[in-house]
Amino acid sequence: MNESPPDDDAGRTRRSRRPGPFTLLALPGLTVVLGFAGFMAATGRLSAAWPQDADTHAVASGGETADRVHKSYVPWLREAAKTCAVLKPSVLAAQIDQRSGWDSDSGTLSGEVGIAGFTDAQWRTWGKDDDGNGRSSPSDPVDAIMALARQDCAAAKEVTVLRTRGTVTGDLLDLTLAAYTVGTDSVSGAGRVPPRARTYLTEVKALFARYETFDRAESGNSGTQKASGVLAPPVTTLVITSPFGSREHPLTGVTKLHTGVDFAAPQGAPISAARQGQIVFAGMTKAYGNRVVIDHGTIGGRRLETTYSHLSSMQVTTGQSVEAGTVVGFVGSTGLSTGPHLHFEVLVDGAYTDPQPWLAIDH
Known about the structure:
By secondary structure, the protein is of the alpha+beta class. The protein folds into two domains: 59-219, Lysozyme, CATH 1.10.530; 239-358, Glucose Permease (Domain IIA) (Distorted Sandwich), CATH 2.70.70. Helix content is 30%, strand content 22%. The protein contains ten helices and 15 strands. The strands form four sheets. Strands 3, 6, 8, 9, 10, 12, 14 and 15 form an eight-stranded antiparallel sheet that branches. A three-stranded antiparallel sheet has the order 7-13-11, with no helix packed on it. Helix 3 packs across helix 4 (89-100), helix 3 packs parallel to helix 6 and helix 4 crosses helix 9. The protein starts with 20 loop residues before the first helix and ends in a 10-residue tail after the last strand.
């Protein structure tokens, strides 16, 4: 202990040293912080409360540092994205960013808990103990990430059925995100992305680029390669009257994506399955008329489907297995059509793509 220097003047009054104003203000707070840190260290939870910089993954967007995502979450984002084809790690990360900014306490007052903002009722449906720590909680980021993927994929399944039947139109991911935020019934009622879901879509999709590095990490997978020339021609003569791409619809006057190609063919000409598979839909729809959808399974790691629309009649039923060349129906002009033709579509992992590279024909 340091001793005070002796007084030079025996008659000088000794002044006691009192704490200054900074000490009076800072000491109580410092005591609380040190006490909390001591408790967390003693219980082994200090590292979880304050993740080290080495355990975070910086995500760059446009040269700026975006939210820092704990690196332990990234494998779970990738695992969750495998739940269904429409998802990517960046999609889930963007949803969480939009919902909470990765702050697990952001929605507590509204009854939405954790980084994905689950209510108690929602958690009873989607929540599980995915990380195996003995408890299922929306406050557990891993459990929340996996539950969000299950919720998204359930919505994707519902809107896929609606789109297959011609009840709704639009991009599958857009429809899925819309169903997530406003419900499948609202999407079905609108026949597309409802206006009240567009703000959510805009905000989430604006965040995709921030997290695209999570998608690229596995880009070496051969499953991302396109398989060419794997489909047989669905009609005998392939004369394309309207290609895949943006166009003005001849009846509605609306300019939007033409999701397939139109092949000219005479009324009643046979239409064949382009590849072996299973009929997942065969029925009448408002826009497509008589429509057949075939699931061909996975090719090159990607799910492949083909559709055949405006048929005069159908020769197959839902659930039936077919071989390449099996007649599925005959050319017609049912639905929104200006004359006999085949509207032929190819979907890869649920997304419309140009059918021509997939057909075994000369382009």
